[in-house]
Amino acid sequence: MNQVRRDYGPRGGAEHLARIHGTEEDKVNCPFYFKIGACRHGDKCSRQHHRPPFSQTIIIPHMWANPLLLVANAGGDINAADKSKVQEDFDDFFAEIFQEFNKFGKIEEIDVCENLGEHLVGNVYVKFEDEEFAAEAKNVMHNRFYAGRSLLCEYSPVTDFREARCRQFDEGICERGPYCNFMHVKEPSKELKEYLEKEFKYVITKPRRGGGGNYIGGGEDRERERERPRERSRDRDRDRGDRGRDRS
Fold first, then answer.
1. What confidence tier does 226 reach under pLDDT thresholds 50, 70, 90?
2. To the nearest whole percent, how much of the chain has pLDDT over 70?
3. What is the H or E stretch that residue 36 is in?
4. d(CA 69, CA 176)
5. Secondary structure class of 48 (helix, strand, coil)
6. What CA–CA distance (Å, rounded) separates 248 from 242?
7. pLDDT, average across residues 167-174
8. Which of 7, 49, 77, 96 is the most buried (most CB within 10 A)?
9. Measuring CA to CA, which residue among 125, 137, 127, 148 is closest to residue 37?
10. Which long-range contacts (C-beta less than 8 Å, at least 24 apart) are formed by 29-33?
11. Model confidence over 43-83: pLDDT tens digits?
């Protein structure tokens, strides 16, 4: 009988764990928290939520008070809400937070969830060009009062939002509706996008297909995106080492 050789050595095990990390095969780490930075089970989740010690991205849970949540909680029809008024109020909110977070450094992306699920409703994600910008924003914004509430601000593991966005929602065909577990990102109006591009050179592009959440493919792009924080971390460590030698 031919025996099948299995590699249980350190290298084989490490490669296997790296390959399945953050996927459904990973029985230790929560794939939803890894991809989205939020999980519907919260602290009761049976898998681990590894909160990063640093990141380009910060998350402020429930910062946007989505008016449709009040309608839904009252048993009303969210489809009957005044969409133009909702959009107008959202544009005011987005413009305000953009200008506030822009004070800390260049922003690569701001995403606001319009999901109504408890773990995603009103979540604001801000991805900066540099981790140091994110660190300053986190330190300043944490416990700050906004709209009568104290904000919780923490680092998010999400640096590639194609992993987090719902492709079906972006294509207008999500059947799960506002309680989908992937991000339904609320878009600013065309007028606000044009203003931000003109005044701040901030361009909001349409999400690229083939990369995330329930997207298929896009693996090469995702690997390049994951390498960027590692490269920045190595550069930062080298800078600290150089400063230490300069002082000695």
1. very low
2. 72
3. helix 31-36
4. 16
5. strand
6. 10
7. 94
8. 49
9. 125
10. 32/181, 33/157
11. 778 777 778 999 999 999 999 999 999 999 999 999 999 99
Cβ-based neighbour number of residue 57 at 10 Å: 25
Least confident interval from 34-43, 104-113, 134-143: 34-43
Q: How far apart are CA 24 and CA 144, in angstroms?
A: 36
Place of tokens 């095969």: 25
Angle 219-247/131-141 helices, nearest 10 degrees? 80
- Map residue 141 onto helix, strand or coil: helix
**Is residue 94 predicted with pLDDT exceeding 80?**
yes
Buried b / exposed e along 187-205 (16+ C-beta atoms within 10 A): bbeeebbebbeeeeebebe
d(CA 155, CA 138): 8
* pLDDT tens, residue by residue, 137-166: 999 999 999 999 999 999 999 999 998 999
The span from the CA of 98 to the CA of 34, in Å, is: 25
pTM for this model (two decimals): 0.75
CA angle in degrees (0–180, nearest 5) for 218-126-100: 150
- As given in the structure block, the two tokens for residue 131 are 């981790």
Tokens at residue 25, please? 């095969």
Inter-residue contact 143 to 150 (CB < 8 Å): yes
